[in-house]
User: Fold this.
Amino acid sequence: MCSLTAMNLRSPIFLSIFVLALANLPTFSPAQPSDSGKQAAASTVRLREVVLPVTVRNYKGELVANVKIRDFTLTEDGRPQTIKSFTRESNLPFRLGLLVDTSRGVLGAMDSERKAAGKFVDLMLPEKSKAGSDSAKDEAFLIHFDREVELLRDFTTSRVKLHRELDEMGPTRAPESGGESDGGGQEHGPSHGRGGTQLYDAIFLASDELMKAQNGRKALIVFSDGVDRDSKETLNDAVDAADRAGVTVYAIYFRGEEERGQNGFPGQGGGRQYPGGGGGYPRGGDYPSGGGGRHGGQSEPGVDGKKILEKIAQRTGGRFFEAKKKDNLDEIYSQIAEELRGQYLLTYTPDVVDKEGGFHKIALKANKDDLTVVTREGYYAPGGVAE
Assistant:
C-alpha cells in the first residue's frame, strides 16, 4: 500500500499533525452496561451512526429544497432502515481536497484550471477565520500529481495560501532534464520528454492519509484526463480508500492532448517501495480496464479515461463533468460548489451492528417519480479501518 513516504510533502508540520490525528481516530465498541451506561450507549450510537451526503434534483436537473424524510426509502444490504434525520442545514464543516493532474496531457488547460480552482476556493472557504477556531471552519488542501504525488498545501482555511500554491503549481521535472532541484530529488518547471500520471495513488493518498481522520463533509475534486500511467495502487484500492474515508469524488475530465510512446516511469520516485497484495473492490465492480497498480507503471493500451472518472464519481456518490473546452472550467467548478452547498445530510443507525468492518451496500430511493437522488453506494463499518 502507499504510505507517507510515497507523497512528497512540502508541509513541514504534516507528519506531526497526521500522528496526532491517528491518535484520535474513533473506535467501534459496544456500549457497556454500568451505572454510567447512558453515556457509553450514546457514544456507541454516535459511532454506529451513518452520515450520507445526498443530492436531490427534479426532472429538470435542478437542486430541490424542502424535501422531507417521508419522501425517501433507505435500505442497507437489502434491509429497510429508519432514516433518523434529513436536513440541508448542518454545522459540519467541509473538508475539501483539490487534486490536479499536471501531466503533459492536460498542460494545455493548466492556466484555466488554476483560475477556475481559485474561484472554487473563494466560493467554498470563508473569507476570514477567527483566531483559534480553524478546527470548526471549512478547510481545503491541494495536491498535484504526474510522475509524483505532491502535497502542495495541507489543510488550511487560508484562501491566500491556496491561491499562492495554485499560481506556482506546475509539472514535476525529471532530474535528468536539467531543471532546478529543490534539494529533495524534485525539479520544477516545464515538463520535457517523458511523463507519468499517478491518478490512483493521488486519490488513495488523499483519502487514506489526509481525509480518513477528518470529521465533516468530505469531498475530493479531481481534474484529470483519467488515464493512469504510473501508480502503485490499483483503481480498486483508490476507490476502497475513498469509501473507508467517507469521501465523495467529483471528477472533471479534460481529454487534452494524447500522449504517445512510453510515458511510464517504473522504478522512479526516490526508491519508494510498495508491498504487494490484493485489495480488490469488494462489490465486484465492473470497472473499465484501467491498468495501474504494481504492473510497472504503464496503463494498458486503449484505456478510456473518461469512463474511469465516471465510474469513480458514481461509486463514491459524486458527479462527473467533462470540460470539452478550457473556457467552461469556471462553470463546472461553480456547479460543484453549488451542489456541495445544496446537499442534504441523511443520518441513520444500522439495524445490525457490524464490528468486523465489512462493506455495506446502500440504496436510497425517492418516493416521488419526479425526484432523483444521488449518494454513496455503500460504506465500511468503523471496525474495518486499516492500521
Remarks:
- The chain is about 25% helix and 25% strand.
- Residues 110-124 form the longest helix (15 residues).
- The chain has a mean pLDDT of 77.
- The longest strand covers residues 50-58.
